[in-house]
Write a structure and sequence with these properties.
By secondary structure, this protein is of the alpha/beta class. The chain is built from eight helices and ten strands. The protein has helices at about 25-35, 50-60, 90-100, 135-145, 165-190, 205-215, 225-230, 235-240, and strands spanning about 1-5, 10-15, 15-20, 40-45, 65-70, 105-110, 115-120, 125-135, 195-200, 220.
């Protein structure tokens, strides 16, 4: 089994079966693991060490059974990997997942708790990127500092609006899509051509229409990070897993 341990959810891949659970409800993950052989390794990528420790404790498994997939990345796949010590595993695996789609420069964008924009050059150098609060994180931060309390179901558009709910939504969408466009422009200037853009993450649907309106060509892959993880596994392990397109 492969675990993709994020800040708010844990995705898991068992053969070709892929699912996701919140940390408040990991019972199904426990059930799936109870059906696997005891000697089977659990491969994982984690961006949150406390969430990883919680899963190990909850599953009542020995830590030695868990294999960190980051250890499979090398300078053969990311040329400057030795310089990427402080780069989150999700950013690296997202970029590697996107790179499976093209030989050109790629920009992987993960719209989650944080929105991360990552640039892997055509020469497989991880140049860097941007990180800023995700859609829900921005909205919650605003609500925590003001008396505004709004139901997201009221949201109608992404234009200038007299309605507070719509104005907040359009503001967050505008600053996120604007940051994406800025990153595209910078990479295009460096590469002398536009990168292939691949987007993932649970908050993508908030921005999808705006990106189309801005004519930002992109691919949406909900399993991008998991695809990158699988691509790095040893061949004898990789053949046991399939990430659907």
């Amino acid at each position: 089994m492969i675990l993709e341990i994020g800040n708010t959810r844990c995705k898991f891949l068992d053969g070709s079966f892929l699912s996701s659970s919140s940390y408040e409800n990991l019972f199904y993950l426990q059930f799936r693991l109870s059906q696997t052989p005891k000697d089977k390794k659990i491969y994982y990528s984690s961006v949150n060490s406390s969430k990883f420790d919680r899963i190990v404790e909850l599953l009542q498994e020995n830590k030695e059974k868990f294999v960190n997939c980051r250890d499979f990345i090398s300078s053969n796949t990311i040329r400057n990997f030795d310089e990427c010590t402080h780069i989150g595993s999700d950013r690296l695996f997202g970029a590697l997942g996107a790179k499976k789609l093209t030989k050109n420069a790629i920009m992987s964008i993960d719209c989650g708790t944080a929105t991360t924009i990552n640039y892997l050059s055509s020469e497989n150098v991880f140049v860097g990127g941007m990180i800023f609060p995700g859609y829900v994180t921005q909205k919650n931060a605003l609500f925590s500092k003001t008396s505004i309390q709004l139901n997201s179901k009221n949201i109608q558009n992404t234009k200038l609006s007299l309605l507070t709910a719509d104005a907040i939504h359009s503001g967050i969408v505008a600053n996120t899509s604007g940051a994406i466009q800025l990153a595209i422009d910078e990479v295009t200037q460096l590469e002398k051509q536009k990168p292939t853009i691949v987007i993932t993450g649970g908050n993508y649907h908030y921005f999808s229409n705006k990106l189309l309106e801005m004519k930002i060509d992109h691919i949406f892959d909900p399993f991008l990070v998991m695809r990158g993880i699988v691509s790095m596994l040893p061949i004898n392990v990789k053949k046991m897993y399939t990430v659907k397109r």
